[in-house]
Amino acid sequence: MVPDSISANAPPLFIVAANNDMCCSAPVIQLLQMYRKAKIITEVHLYAQAGHGFNMGKRSKLQSINTWPQRMCDWLNDSGYLKK
User: Fold this and answer.
1) Looking at the predicted structure, is the pLDDT value of residue 57 above 70?
2) What total number of domains does the chain contain?
3) Is residue 2 part of a domain?
4) Whose CA is closest to 12, among 75, 70, 83, 84?
5) How far apart are CA 21 and CA 46, in angstroms?
6) For a surface tag, which of 18, 22, 27, 34 has the fewest beta carbons within 10 Å of its beta carbon?
7) Could you tell me which residue, 32 or 53, shows the higher pLDDT?
8) How many angstroms separate the CA atoms of 23 and 51, rounded?
9) What is the pTM of this model?
10) Is 10 exposed, middle or buried (0-12, 13-18, 19+ CB in 10 A)?
């Protein structure tokens, strides 16, 4: 799931995951460390709970999970990807 290395020309990365996702939370941290080592812009949102596969968050009763797509929009905007 996590590559052996990250190229210096890899694209910026936005990650959203849940800490209580036993499948994927540890690899997220590993991937973050690899991107940091490669000095590539990375933003990570690791929510306390949500489990695995919360998708766009609309099924969750947790406010933080319901609004995570807005965090991605904020990151895209702050990074200049949404400018004309």
Assistant:
1) no
2) 1
3) no
4) 75
5) 10
6) 22
7) 32
8) 9
9) 0.83
10) middle
